[in-house]
Amino acid sequence: MYPSGIPGDPSTTHLPPALLSTCMNVGTTIIKSRRSVRNFKETRVPDEVVRDALECARQAPTAMNLQPWLVGVITDRETLQKIADLADHGKFIGTAPVCFAVFGERGQKYYLEDCSAFTMQLALGLWSYGVGSCWVAGDKKPYADAVRTLLQVPATHTLVSLLPAGYPAEMATPAKKELGQISFTNRYAPP
Predict the structure, then answer these.
(1) Are 111 and 105 within 8 A, CB to CB?
(2) Domains of the chain, earliest start first
(3) DSSP per residue over 15-72, as a string?
(4) How many other CB atoms are there within 10 angstroms of residue 48's CB atom?
(5) pLDDT tens for residues 63-113?
(6) For residues 182 and 186, what is the distance between their CA atoms, to the nearest angstrom?
(7) pTM of the predicted protein model
(8) Which of 91, 118, 113 is nearest to 102 (CA)?
């Protein structure tokens, strides 16, 4: 059960159980419905949505609470196109209304894990407003340093991910593996 005082603990909430269940299901619905979006409408993403999504991202789990992330919010068309030209699998960045460039502090042991959690929470925060995104790899990619230089980020940081985002013009729903194919309890046993 929940330790007393933890948010969501049914013994400490003032919400009726049916409403609490509905509120918690909103979160899982957002998570389960998120898909990668590569085709965006031209509609600008409001500053309030960007800010709230960033607030969600900065709450991400982080080893020893070091928070080794630095994020750039790119909306300039020319800069978006330059990033798209650099990224081998991100040509659609050039058509996105906004792209988030997530950098990690090189000297931190868990920067990749921390910044990956940051990126995922950013994607979910955006999706909660109907803003789709697509994670484009940055870490270990040959263009990582060129993007860092383009955005004038200090060499103390390295690119972890690019997250182009916007309202979906179209969205595919690819099949996902069944839970039994990807999980086990206690010890793995081949099917």
Answers:
(1) yes
(2) 35-169 (3.40.109.10)
(3) S-HHHHHHHHHHHHHHHHH--B--EE-SPPPPHHHHHHHHHHHTTS--GGG---EEEE
(4) 9
(5) 999 999 999 999 999 999 999 999 999 999 999 999 999 999 999 999 999
(6) 13
(7) 0.86
(8) 118
